[in-house]
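A quick aside before the break. I want you to see a complete sequence-to-structure record at least once, exactly as it would be stored in a machine-readable document. Don't worry about memorizing anything.
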Amino acid sequence: MSLHSDEKSLNAPIVAPRGWLRATIVAALAMVFVGAAVGFIGFLSQMHGAEIKPDHNADGIVVLTGGSSRVSDAMELLAAGYGKRLLFPACTRPTPPATFPVRYRTISHC
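That is the input. The structure line, written in tokens, reads:
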């Protein structure tokens, strides 16, 4: 037995791991991305582009703050008689009175 019997294995080129696993992972992620994109496009196609008028009146209108036109839209619904009261749920920071239209700034805050 010689000490240099494994000389060929030391000088052998290092073979890169097979790329099939990486290709499979990339292909699976691509299919998930495409599936999510198709699902999102399907969701968007089901959304109505025009506003729908309520078919009956409600006891109250709940306004989730965050959008610039949500408060004014709720005020219009209240003025049109679609609800008797407005409810602004608590949020992390108070909604400033300047957000409300001038004619409704006298509404009391809870």
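Two observations worth writing down. The mean pLDDT is 76. The chain is about 40% helix and 10% strand. We'll return to this after the break.
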